[in-house]
């Protein structure tokens, strides 16, 4: 299943913030986590994550620091800021509203829900 | 294939990828480092999964996404980068340190220049009363420091340094031993020509060991033009600052003009040269495109103005009215045309075939030569009547100097257009000609005052 670009873009902020809320992380690991959470269904072009991270950094939602990883390479780690947590809560509210609205209309239509094999924890709530 | 070999090949591929990425202005070296870390982790994981290292590299690069799209995303997020920031983005901590030292030295030298121009005041030399002294010695407050800056940056050999110091020493002697008539033309000519002669010393320090090569001299021409543009910009900013400050101080009843005249203006004038030079050095790639852009903009306009002038001369049949300053005006015209020619050349790809802009350049040079010929004709007719004053002789000398240069340039340019010669020949001619300006300026400084009885 190919997910629409706009949807990917719109969901990237809450998703990245939520992953960083779990703990500090870096680009590659964030992408791995997205794959894991979506069961490989949300395919991001790897490079595109970085402009998103830089935007969040500019907006003050995350802060970055360089560290030397175990491999000996320098690696840029990101940490969510208190402001980022507020933003995450706000995004979450908005997404839940969208989700609830869509759910309402899906039920009213009583369309047969297409079988989506998602990992259990992802399916019911979505977002963070 | 041995593991060693595979690792080596992978490093090479990553190197290439990095170089490719670095060419994009929107992606800074620090971002490239972040992306590289990503790429390496991906490759390592794929190798663990059993892929050969070159396959792993290909897959990892593919996953990274289309570089054009990526660079667009970066540009959108960092739009300011396309307008590169004032502080040069440096690659490593080492480079950052070097940029900082450089800025520190430049600002230090600018302060030194500001102090230098105020030093003579300690010995009772007043800017207004001893204007002649300041005019003759203006170069010495700035150019030795500027030369020193480049000597430091280019790590000049001690031998070169001695020559440069000697040149400044000799210049200092000639600027001050002659018994100039105060306010006379000889003094004014010395004040005007000394910086031109000493600019050669700056050029030698700037180009370092490439001072006798075409590329080194071409770089110095570029530097001079960009310095001029920066200087004008700084001067404009300074003017606005002074107007503004004067206005707000006036509102509280304090007159700041005397402070401006005796401190801010002279100190700013000399300090700005060093600051502008440092900016040109530090921001080489930004304004690099400015001089050529201005050239492209003004070449057609100057062509139009010159053709209109020639048309008017032909149409009305009126000769040039040779007044005191007419020759100087035509000298300036030739200087401007030469400048347009030089900056068009400096930005041109020497390997490119002749184009419409080249034709325009030739028209510019030829029409300037014709206009100048009209003026020279008028002067030659009356020079015996006027006699040789220092001003007129100097103006005539410069005119001949520029005339020879432009005439031969036009010839070489036409050859190039007809595909009889290469563009490099034109560059060689221009760069070889450069010392002549300095030599002529030195002659004016050294020979003219005694020749014309220091009037």
Give an overview in words.
The complex is a heterodimer of chains A (128) and B (455). By secondary structure, chain A is an alpha+beta fold. Chain A has one domain (5-109): Winged helix-like DNA-binding domain superfamily/Winged helix DNA-binding domain (Arc Repressor Mutant, subunit A, Orthogonal Bundle), CATH 1.10.10.10. Helix content of chain A is 53%, strand content 12%. Chain A has four helices and three strands, in the order H-E-H-H-E-E-H. Chain A has helices at 5-22, 27-37, 49-59, 82-109, and strands spanning 25-26, 62-68, 74-80. In chain A, strands 1-3-2 form a three-stranded antiparallel β-sheet. In chain A, strand 2 and strand 3 (74-80) form a beta hairpin. In chain A, helix 1 (5-22) packs across helix 4 (82-109). The longest helix of chain A is centred in the last third of the chain and has 28 residues, at 82-109. The relative contact order of chain A is 0.17. Mean pLDDT of chain B is 84; it is low at 83-91. The radius of gyration of chain B is 28 Å and the shape is globular. In chain B, helix 15 runs antiparallel to helix 16. Chain B is built from 17 helices and no strands. Among the domains of chain B are: 3-83, no CATH class; 289-421. Chain B has 455 residues and is an all-alpha fold. Chain B starts with a helix and ends with a helix. Chain A binds chain B through residues 26-28, 45-48, 50-51, 54-55, 58, 69, 71, 73-76, and chain B through 31, 33-35, 37-38, 40-42, 44, 63-67, 69-70, 73-74, 76-78.
């Amino acid at each position: 299943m190919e997910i629409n670009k706009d949807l990917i873009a719109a969901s990237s902020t809450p998703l990245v913030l939520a992953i960083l809320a779990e703990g500090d992380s870096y680009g590659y690991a964030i992408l791995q986590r997205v794959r894991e959470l979506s069961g490989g269904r949300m395919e991001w072009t790897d490079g595109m994550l970085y402009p998103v991270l830089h935007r969040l950094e500019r907006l003050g939602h995350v802060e970055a620091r360089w560290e030397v990883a175990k491999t000996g390479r320098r690696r840029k780690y990101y940490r969510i800021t208190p402001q980022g947590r507020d933003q995450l809560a706000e995004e979450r509210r908005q997404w839940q509203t969208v989700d609830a609205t869509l759910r309402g209309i899906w039920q009213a239509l009583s369309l047969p829900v297409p079988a989506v094999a998602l990992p259990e924890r992802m399916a019911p709530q979505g977002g963070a | 294939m041995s593991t060693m070999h595979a690792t080596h090949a992978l490093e090479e591929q990553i190197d290439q990828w990095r170089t490719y990425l670095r060419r994009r202005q929107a992606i800074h070296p620090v971002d490239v480092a972040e992306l590289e870390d990503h790429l390496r982790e991906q490759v390592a994981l794929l190798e663990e999964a059993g892929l050969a290292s070159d396959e792993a590299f290909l897959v990892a690069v593919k996953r990274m996404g289309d570089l054009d799209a990526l660079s667009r995303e970066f540009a959108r997020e960092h739009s300011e980068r396309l307008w590169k920031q004032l502080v040069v983005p440096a690659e490593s901590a080492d480079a950052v340190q070097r940029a900082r030292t450089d800025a520190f030295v430049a600002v230090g030298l600018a302060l030194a220049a500001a102090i230098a121009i105020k030093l003579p005041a300690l010995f009772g030399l007043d800017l207004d009363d001893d204007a002649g002294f300041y005019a003759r010695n203006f170069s010495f407050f700035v150019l030795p420091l500027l030369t020193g800056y480049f000597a430091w940056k280019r790590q000049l050999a001690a031998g070169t340094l001695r020559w440069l110091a000697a040149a400044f020493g000799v210049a200092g002697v000639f600027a001050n031993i002659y018994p100039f008539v105060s306010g006379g033309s000889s003094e004014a000519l010395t004040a005007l020509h000394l910086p031109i002669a000493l600019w050669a010393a700056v050029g030698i320090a700037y180009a370092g060991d490439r001072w006798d090569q075409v590329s080194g001299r071409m770089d110095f021409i570029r530097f001079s033009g960009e310095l001029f543009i920066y200087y004008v910009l700084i001067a404009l900013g300074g003017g606005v600052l002074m107007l503004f400050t004067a206005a707000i101080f006036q509102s509280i009843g304090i007159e700041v003009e005397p402070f401006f005249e005796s401190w801010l203006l002279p100190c700013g004038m000399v300090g700005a040269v060093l600051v502008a030079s440092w900016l040109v050095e530090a921001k080489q790639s930004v304004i690099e495109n400015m001089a050529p852009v201005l050239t492209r903009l003004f070449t057609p306009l100057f062509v139009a103005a010159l053709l209109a002038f020639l048309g008017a001369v032909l149409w009305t049949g009126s000769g040039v009215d040779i007044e005191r300053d007419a020759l100087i005006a035509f000298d300036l015209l030739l200087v401007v045309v030469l400048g347009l020619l030089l900056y068009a050349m400096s930005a041109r790809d020497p390997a490119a075939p002749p184009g419409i802009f080249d034709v325009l350049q030739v028209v510019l040079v030829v029409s300037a030569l014709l206009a100048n010929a009209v003026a020279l004709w008028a002067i030659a007719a009356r020079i015996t009547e006027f006699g040789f004053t220092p001003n007129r002789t100097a103006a005539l000398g410069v005119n001949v100097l520029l005339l020879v240069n432009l005439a031969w340039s036009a010839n070489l340019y036409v050859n190039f257009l007809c595909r009889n010669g290469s563009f490099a020949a034109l560059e060689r001619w221009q760069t070889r000609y450069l010392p002549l300006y300095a030599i002529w300026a030195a002659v004016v400084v050294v020979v003219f005052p005694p020749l014309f009885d220091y009037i």
